[in-house]
Design goal:
The chain is built from two helices and no strands. The N and C termini lie far apart (86 Å).
């Protein structure tokens, strides 16, 4: 089994916090093949992350801005007067 850390261009210790380890379970890929896979997965992840942003809060409509309470809500517990 080989890992990305086995490649000659393994990241330094300061980059270790930003990297993700991957383990090859079958076969013996070249460093170029590993780099290609990592590049494709990274690009797919970045696209998905960019599309996953929450929509901004909708602006209130003109009616919501200008509408105001004309009276207090009825207190139905008082009954008829």
């Amino acid at each position: 089994m080989s890992t990305l850390a086995d490649t000659p261009d393994a990241p330094s210790s300061e980059d270790a916090a930003r990297t993700v380890s991957a383990e090859v379970l079958r076969g013996d890929p070249t460093p170029e093949e590993l780099a290609a896979v990592v590049s494709v997965v990274r690009e797919a992840y970045l696209r998905e992350a960019a599309e996953a942003l929450a929509e901004p809060e909708p602006r209130p409509s003109a009616w919501q801005i200008s509408a105001r309470g004309l009276r207090e809500p009825l207190n139905r517990d008082l009954g008829w007067r």
